[in-house]
Every structure is written in structure tokens, then in C-alpha cells.
Amino acid sequence: MPPRLILASSSPFRRALLDKLALPYQCQAPDIDESPLAGESAEALVRRLALQKAQAVAVDNSDALIIGSDQVALLDGQILGKPLEHARAIAQLQAASGRRVRFLTGLCLYDSRDRSYQLEAVPFDVQFRVLSAAQIEYYLHHEQPYQCAGSFKSEGLGIALFERLEGEDPNTLIGLPLIRLIRMLAQAGVDVLDPAG
Description:
Elements: E1 4-7, H1 12-19, E2 26-27, H2 42-58, E3 64-75, E4 78-80, H3 86-96, E5 100-111, E6 116-128, H4 133-143, E7 162-166, H5 171-174, H6 178-187
Parallel strand pairs: 1-2, 1-3
Antiparallel strand pairs: 3-4, 3-5, 5-6, 6-7
Helix pairs in contact: 3-4
């Protein structure tokens, strides 16, 4: 019998993605400090936080495979955080207009039975359309993506902001690289297409 599967996240977007795999799982929100360390690269940050989220949930679950994930958006090598407010979202989308933004998603599959883990940082690039001030305002009022890195939700109207998407798995952009996760699960003995084994 495969071990329990736990998603270390409170994100409804990550839950919706994991639902695609039709595996039974539970969710538990990790309680960690997500602040970057001094001099920490974006890749190191997302890898560290994905692992720490999984490890935080493992404390109360000693018999599970735990999925941790964290994402940042980068423009000119600088991390774009969650805007949290309208003015910052406008500034982020103005800066991204006509430009390429790289998303890095840290993905960890942590086996709490033996504390082993698989850990990757998965890139995904987005080429933004040139956006007018009116288009930015319309989008922000329509979707209010103030809790989303880069000020958009690609699973909604945010797709209209883009000219091109470049990466191996569009799910990565939403925050959970399913193709890599399926590979990790297989290495841990869980075949998504034959979960009973």
C-alpha cells in the first residue's frame, strides 16, 4: 500500500493542480518563515522553502510522502513578490509589459518515513504583451491578483497578458510542476497511472 500523500500548502491553485492526478491526498499548511536569506539566489530560495515546507509538515506526519512547493517571479534577475495592493500591482505589470519574466518553482517530494527527499527548481518563462495603462487597470479590477507573485493569475484572465509561454509544463506557472512531480512520485514507488501498484 502506498504511503499517504500530503500537500504542504494552503494554496487553492496547488490543490486544483494536484486534483488532476486523481490521487488521494491531504493538505496541511506549513508554518515557516519565507524571508530570503542574505545573498540567497532565487533558485536557492525556492529550493530551500520547498524543502522547509515539506519538513515542517513532516513533524506531525511520520509516514507520508509530502509535497512542498514555492515559487518566485524574476524580472531582470530581481524577485517580484506578491504585490498585496493595487499600486504595487500596477507597477509590476508596467515593468513586465513587453518583457520576459522567469518563474522558478521549487518542488520537493519528502519521504517522512526515512527523511529522504527529491528537490528541484523548475523554470518557466513568460513573454508579456505590451500592455496599456487601461488594459492593466481592467485586468487588476477584474481579477485582483494581489496575492500572486507578478500580479497575475495565468489560470484566469491573466492568460490575456501574455504573448508566449515557454517551458516544459504549463502547470509550473500556476505553482506545481506536475510533470516533474509525477517523475518524483514514480521514483518513490507511486505510479500515478497505477497507484494500487
